[in-house]
Amino acid sequence: MSNETRPLTRTPWAEIDKRVRRVDEDRWISSRFAPPPQRRALTALYALTYELVRVQEVVSEETLGLIRFQWWREAITELEEGRPARGHDVCMALGEEVAAGRLKTGALQKLVDGYQTAFTEQDRSKEPEAWIALTAANILIPVHNWAEEIRGVSAAYAASRRKATQAFGPHVTPAPKPLRPAIAHFRLRKLYCEGRTPNPLTKRFSIMKAMNTGEV
Fold first, then answer.
1. Angle at Cα 45 formed by Cα 81 and Cα 88, nearest 5°?
2. Does the pTM of the predicted model rise above 0.90?
3. pLDDT reading at 3 higher than 70
C-alpha cells in the first residue's frame, strides 16, 4: 500500500483566505469565530462578493460589466447542474461548498443580480448587503427569527462603512449566538458612524465583544 498523501482539495483555500482578509477584513474577522466547515463556506461567499464588487471598481463601460456578471451567472449555473467548476479559484471554492450543501446556487445568483443592479444604476446603496448577511446566516443556522434585524442593521453598517451616513441605525436585541460569526462585524458601525477608521486590533476587540454579548 502506498504511503503517498494526496491533497483533499485542489482549491487554493489559503490564498483565497488571504485575499478576503486583505479586501474585507471586517467580515473575515467575524468568520474566524465560525466552525471550520462553515468558516470555509463564509470565505467562499465573501470571495465571490469581492469579485462582484470589483466590477464596479475596474469597469467603466456598462456592456463590459454586464459581460462579467453574466460570466459569474453562467459559472454558478454550471455548478447547479453538477458540472466541474471553472478554473477560477473562487469558482473552485464555490463548487466545493455547493457540493457540500453549505452554499445554495439560488442564493449566489441573487447576489450576482443585486450587484448588477447596483452597477447599472451606479448606486452603491443598492448593493445586496442584507442578502450577503442573510446568506452567511443561513450557512450557520438555516432557521432563525432574526432576518428583519439583519436587514435593518446591514443597511446601517454598509452606509456608515462607506461614509454615506453617520447615523447608527436601529438598536436591536442581542443576536442569537449561532448567528454571530455572520454578523458580529456590524458592531463596527459604531466606530464608522463616529468617523473613525479602526485599526485591526480595534476591530478585533469590537467584534469579539459582539461575539460575547450579541450586541451588534
1. 60
2. yes
3. no
